[in-house]
């Protein structure tokens, strides 16, 4: 009697209602796949319990693939960060593959399956992904940047101190009517450390402060509309933004309104420094962040049971 084989790539394609080539692209991270299609294929793999053939699992492991999950590259900080990650991983004989995921459709658990199936060696994530709560992340090769996920090592900059530096600079220039404008509603639930740092200084001096937010992940035209709704008249001395792109959009809008408040940003990527050197902002040390993310991940891949800190904090610099 012949032994019945397990589910095949054809079975996955049939269940997901896609072609075999599409399933292959998802498995091999080769070419663009829409989030919806990727989820359909991943769900089919999970439902069927499909595993790569042994020789392909060995090949994937030999290639030492790393998934880097970012919400977008609209913010030049992310583009710069990925470039440094890819460079560092290449030096260590790993291959980095970039995924965009805003966290709307996927949970981190979906990417954990890639690790368990042997298609990737580890994951670096900065997207706001949910966790289902059924997986123990303790010894899994996952590192996060600027996103708190329980039991996963977190690399971030001293956003609290950066917020303080911005506020102190604003006050030193004599500004008294302040708007703090965040690029993300989630920054207020709970309060983002950048905003906390600003408020801790402004409140000490009893400065008049308002807060508002826009949806940074929306299309550029939507962000511009949201900014026009948040700033309807020239009533602020300074507008402190929690990222540089929001700050640049605000600068453009206030010019059209006919006034020039002090506008500050946050992130300080090389792109911003080179093309908008007059913007007051806080620089995150992107190259150092990337190196630490990569080094921690490789250590976790090779020695999963080693002790890792819950949080690794890097300093920031005011650019004024």
UniProtKB/TrEMBL annotation:
The record's section on Pfam families has: LacI (PF00356), Peripla_BP_3 (PF13377)
Tell me which UniProt keywords the record has, alphabetically.
DNA-binding, Repressor, Transcription, Transcription regulation
Key word Transcription present in the record? Answer: yes
Q: Which InterPro entries match?
A: HTH_LacI (IPR000843), LacI/GalR-like_sensor (IPR046335), Lambda_DNA-bd_dom_sf (IPR010982), Peripla_BP_I (IPR028082)
Presence of the UniProt keyword Amino-acid biosynthesis in the record = no
GO molecular function, a single term: DNA binding
Q: Where is the HTH lacI-type domain?
A: 7-62
The superkingdom listed in its UniProt entry is: Bacteria
Name of the protein: LacI family DNA-binding transcriptional regulator
């Amino acid at each position: 009697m012949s032994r019945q084989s397990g589910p095949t790539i054809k079975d996955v394609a049939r269940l997901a209602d896609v072609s075999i080539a599409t399933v292959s692209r998802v498995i091999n991270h080769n070419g663009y796949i829409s989030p919806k299609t990727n989820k359909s294929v991943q769900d089919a793999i999970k439902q069927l319990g499909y595993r790569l053939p042994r020789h392909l699992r060995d090949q994937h492991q030999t290639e030492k693939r790393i998934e880097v999950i970012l919400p977008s590259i609209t913010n030049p900080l992310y583009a710069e960060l990925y470039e440094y990650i890819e460079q560092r991983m290449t030096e260590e004989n790993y291959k980095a593959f970039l995924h965009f995921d805003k966290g709307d459709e996927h949970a981190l658990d979906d990417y954990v399956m890639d690790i368990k199936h042997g298609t990737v060696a580890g994951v670096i994530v900065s997207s706001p992904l949910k966790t289902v709560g059924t997986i123990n992340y303790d010894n899994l090769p996952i590192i996060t940047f600027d996103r708190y996920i329980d039991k996963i090592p977190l690399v971030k900059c001293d956003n609290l101190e950066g917020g303080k530096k911005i506020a102190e600079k604003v006050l030193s220039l004599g500004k008294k009517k302040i708007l703090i404008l965040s690029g993300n509603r989630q920054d207020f639930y709970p309060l983002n450390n950048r905003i906390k740092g600003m408020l801790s200084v402004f409140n000490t001096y009893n400065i008049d402060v308002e807060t508002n937010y826009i949806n940074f992940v929306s299309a550029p035209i939507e962000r511009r509309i949201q900014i026009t709704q948040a700033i309807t008249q020239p009533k602020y001395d300074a507008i402190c933004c929690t990222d540089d792109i929001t700050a640049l959009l605000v600068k453009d809008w206030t010019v059209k309104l006919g006034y020039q408040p002090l506008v500050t940003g946050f992130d300080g990527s090389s792109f911003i420094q080179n093309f908008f050197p007059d913007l007051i902002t806080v620089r995150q040390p992107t190259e150092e962040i990337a190196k630490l993310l990569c080094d921690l991940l490789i250590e976790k891949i090779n020695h999963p049971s080693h002790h890792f800190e819950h949080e690794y904090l890097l300093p920031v610099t005011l650019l004024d």
